């Protein structure tokens, strides 16, 4: 099923299993969301559980915090990634802090769904990658799905989490189809914060998450034709990070390339490069290289193909890892 449908099915399952799960956001009800991810949920669960909110992200998240304090499990949709910033105060100073502030007495099981990244020809503030703002904020779990199977399980695991979760969805992959086992028991699902080696390899470790995973798999297929074996790891969880899976791979390959759509400067790849250098210094054959967006605001749609990391830029970084 398409990734968007897998998210829909995952939320539907969570709502069926727990009457305290609520879905709320701009146009999530009658319209079914701008990407139709919540399509049909209001019809099946009613307007008291699938709530069309005013166009006010700070109010949406603030209300979700209050609902969580009263025992509900709100699932908030931020319509586009760049729209999350008006709610930054509520997320950073309230949602992330309440558990610590109350010495563990209060929990805020809120999921904030954020369609992220570019590639859909959208206008300003509709194609951003704000993950680092939230990985830097202690008290938040931050995850990113890249395929339909993970979307189905990870959204349910996030809703079940006692902690607030920032859930990034790759909007340009919403229509990509993949098998989804809806009959698998939760005990058989991959843990929410485990990375996944999606393409085993021997020569270079390539780390990615969200929309970049598919691009890296395409690069791995192209590299294989040239005799190079790329191990592609889908990080899935950005905070906490499954650093052990990353370390094992880089210690074995000796080379690493990190790929993400966000600007390279101060991007998530910087944290990965630092940690890998600390843990794998004596096994590295070259510096950890990063491939990402440029240090500019996201460009107009006609230029986004030049901005987003593509197969050629990834393969160029792979080539450069063999220059040392």
TrEMBL record:
Source species, domain of life: Bacteria
Q: Which GO terms describe its molecular function?
A: magnesium ion binding; oxidoreductase activity
Q: Does the record bear Lipoprotein in its keywords?
A: no
Q: Does the keyword Oxidoreductase apply?
A: yes
Q: Which residues form the Transketolase-like pyrimidine-binding domain?
A: 1-176
Q: Which SUPFAM superfamilies match?
A: Thiamin diphosphate-binding fold (THDP-binding) (SSF52518), TK C-terminal domain-like (SSF52922)
Q: What's a Pfam family in this record?
A: Transketolase_C
- CDD domains on file: TPP_PYR_E1-PDHc-beta_like
Annotated SMART domains: Transket_pyr
Q: Which UniProt keywords apply?
A: Oxidoreductase, Thiamine pyrophosphate
InterPro entries reported for this sequence: THDP-binding, Transketo_C/PFOR_II, Transketolase-like_Pyr-bd, Transketolase_C
Cofactor(s) of this protein: thiamine diphosphate
Q: What is this protein called?
A: Alpha-ketoacid dehydrogenase subunit beta
